[in-house]
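Hi all, long-time lurker, first post. I run a small reading group and we've been trying to get comfortable going from sequence to structure in the token notation. Rather than ask abstract questions, I figured I'd post a concrete chain and ask someone more experienced to write out its structure so we can walk through it together at our next meeting. Sequence below, copied exactly:
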Amino acid sequence: MFQLLFLLRGKVRATIDDAVWDCVGPTVITIHPSVVHGFEFSKAAQGYVLTLDQSVLFGKHYEQQADRFAPLFLEPLQMQFAPAADVLERIEALLIQMMKEFEANSTAMR
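-- Answer (accepted) --
Happy to help. Here is the structure in token form:
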């Protein structure tokens, strides 16, 4: 499973294989499934972890978009966001919407 850590506020110390990254939000970290990783968050940290199956990013239905996403997951990356409030609000709103949709689908399956 691929992971994207969206740290909107606060700090994280990310251990990525043998490297240690000290990051301050707003930032995103991409993690390939084969990478050993761990996170230590500050008390003020706020964010989301999005876990995606490989078929979602590179599956048959998404072949045309695969070239767009592949560079993000070839190796771990840390990308700082511009601290524009409207951009962060939009990203957080999209992540919250995905979480609500997942919860609704999980409830419907029971």
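A couple of things your group might point at:
The two ends are 24 Å apart (CA to CA).
The first helix runs from residue 54 to 58.
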